[in-house]
Amino acid sequence: MHAVKRTYIDVMQSAAGIPPFSAVSNSGAKSDAYGWGRWVSSLFAIYDTDRMIELDLPWWNVEATRTIEEFLAGRPNARIFEYGSGASTVWLAKRSGAVTTVEHDRDWLNRFKKQTEAFDNVELRFRPIDGGPGPYVNAIAEEDGGYDLIVVDGRHRNACLMEARARLNAGGIIVFDDSGRKRYRDAIETCGLSENRFYGRSFCVPYPDYTSLLTDAG
Length: 218
Description:
By secondary structure, the protein is α/β, with parallel strands linked by helices.
C-alpha cells in the first residue's frame, strides 16, 4: 500500500509540470476556493506545500474548510494552536490574529521558516517525540490562556485532543482531521465535545475523506 501511495504522489507531482496537466494545476488559484476547479488543482499539489500555499488551501475536507473559514471571518483576531505544520499554517495565518504550530520533524518544520517568514503572527515550535510524546503533546500548555481554534492534525492525536479540550476557549472549535480512522473514534466520541463530522470531497486526494469539527456542547 505504501508503494502504491508513493507512486501516486510521484505521478501527480510530476504531471503538474506537464502540459496539459500543468494548465489544470495552475488554473485552480483563480477559481472558486470550494469549487471543483480548485479541488482538481489540489490533486496535483499532494505533499507539495508550495503549490498548496499558492492555491491558498489546507489539506482538509472541503466543506469543513469552508465552515472553518466562515468561523474565522467572524474572529479576525483569533488565537490558534496547530498540532502538525503544513500549508494549513499559512492558510490560518492569513485568517487569524496568531498561529502557534508545533511539529515533531525538524526538517519538515525548517521548510516553513521561509514560507512563513512574511507572517509576524506565526510561531513555529519544534518538539521531538523520540524520547516520548510529552513535549509535543504538552506544547499547547507552554503559555497561559486558551485558543479559539485548535487543529489536531499531527502525531499522537488522541493525547493531543485531551490537551486541546482543556485549552479551548468558549465558543471555540477543535479541528480533528482524518477523523474517520478507527484508531481515533473512541477518543473523539468520549471527549465530551459535540462532533460535526464532514465526509466527502477533500483537498489533495481523489477519494472522499473525513474532517470533524468539535465544539463544547454545553
